[in-house]
Write a structure and sequence with these properties.
205 residues; 6-stranded mixed sheet; 8 strands; binds uracil
């Protein structure tokens, strides 16, 4: 049986398809809404869809998504039990010849798109959220923060949920030095594992 929350989430996703809250809808292929069960206890928030996500209409299916999938598996977290979404739901890019180059969303775009993530959160009410990267953290915390200043700290969101800040998986793709890459990957896995442990601890409390 389809629950009321599931129905409400589907209606929200439909509404988001025609979102014109900021200008980004004009160039993107489609809205990339969040994905996962409405009963998910762990929400993972990224920045915005990339080129492949924009074409597929699904979050984290491109190179950063592959890193995320591997890290989740190494952390013992089944992605199917999580809800994965982005702070900004349209791909922002610069066209360079045939290539579409990722362009970082700015404050007004993050603020305009917060309406959607707030409504996703209202329906899902995740006790634990992982903000992957500074854009996700800014959207969730309503202020500019640094990863180094917030990582490892339990933060509380306006809706009472816990928020843990970590790096964005695409940061790992940009690291060139093998040792740095391995160390940062391990830290990312540990952040995901720790967040999952919080889910279990809160469920048992
Ligand atoms: N990067 C993001 O932040 N989100 C995606 O969905 C893909 C890449």
């Amino acid at each position: 049986m389809v629950s009321n929350s599931q129905r409400a989430w589907e209606a929200l996703r439909e509404e988001a398809r025609v979102c014109t809250r900021c200008h980004l809808y004009k160039c993107a292929t489609q809205t990339v809404f969040g994905e996962g069960g409405v009963n998910a206890r762990l929400m993972l928030v990224g920045e915005q869809p990339g080129d492949q996500e924009d074409l597929a209409g699904q979050p984290f299916v491109g190179p950063a998504g592959q890193v995320l999938d591997r890290a989740l598996a190494d952390a013992g977290v089944d992605r199917a039990t999580t809800y994965v979404t982005n702070a900004v739901k349209h791909f922002k890019f610069e066209q360079r010849g045939k290539r579409r180059i990722h362009s970082k969303p700015q404050g007004p775009e993050i603020d305009a798109c917060r309406w959607w993530i707030d409504h996703e959160r209202l329906l899902i009410r995740p006790p634990v959220t992982v903000a992957m990267g500074a854009t996700a953290a800014r959207s969730l915390l309503h202020k500019v923060v640094t990863i180094s200043g917030t990582r490892g700290h339990r933060l509380t969101l306006e809706d009472g949920g816990e928020c843990w800040v970590t790096i964005h998986p695409s940061y790992l793709l940009r690291l060139r030095d093998k040792a740095d890459k391995a160390r940062e990957y391990d830290r990312f896995v540990e952040d995901l594992r720790a967040a999952n442990r919080r889910v279990a601890a809160l469920a048992a409390a």
